[in-house]
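CHAIN AND CONFORMATION:
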Amino acid sequence: MAVTLTEVFESLAESYTTLEENARTKLAKCLTDLTQGVDTSLIRTAMGVAAEALPYRRVLEYAEKVGVRVALTDVRKDLTRQLLSRSAGSSTCQIRNEAARMEVEAAQRFLANTDGLLDRFEDAPIEETGEQAEAEVEPAPAPAPVDVPTATPAQKRTLEAIRDNGVAIQELKVGRLQVTVERGERPRRDMVEWVVSQGWAKQAAASLYNGQAVTLTGIGEAILAR
């Protein structure tokens, strides 16, 4: 039996929601154990994984009404609009600012991780319920060709470094992110973050302490292939 969009997305979402549940449980256990102090690193970890799981939970909740395809499409559009209009956190509470930053970065990774997922299952049967499921479904049209963006020399060098140098984003100190490489020249952090925000590259969903690997998306590879 062919794998469906719903099965793939639910499997992807489960990995994030499980991490969130485990982090919340660990934090709750720490907070209720009066024999030990509060481990603040557990708070930050719980905030981070909650931000990562949030867009997946939004899709799953909305999908109960409209199906995964429509839910994923709408949530991706909504997050894209938010990223284009959202400004950096300006609260006097540093924790709120940190949470806002985590949500922005998590939204960027969600968009990158689900990029092309809908097209991959373009020919799969439309997910419907009730009488609609019995109706004959016409084949979906082939996706329109995507225009390859034009990149500047500096942007191309950043993409080449991501492709060739083993680039990752790592938090070496609390609140201080840095670009690391396995080999070759290290690109600027702002350039790496910019190409990720454009969807030309994506960050792996992993611990910032251990480092989040940055890899090219299909668009990034197409830019370098021009």
Remarks:
- Confidence is low (pLDDT under 50) at residues 123-136.
- The chain has eight helices and four strands.
- The two ends are 38 Å apart (CA to CA).
- The longest strand covers residues 168-173.
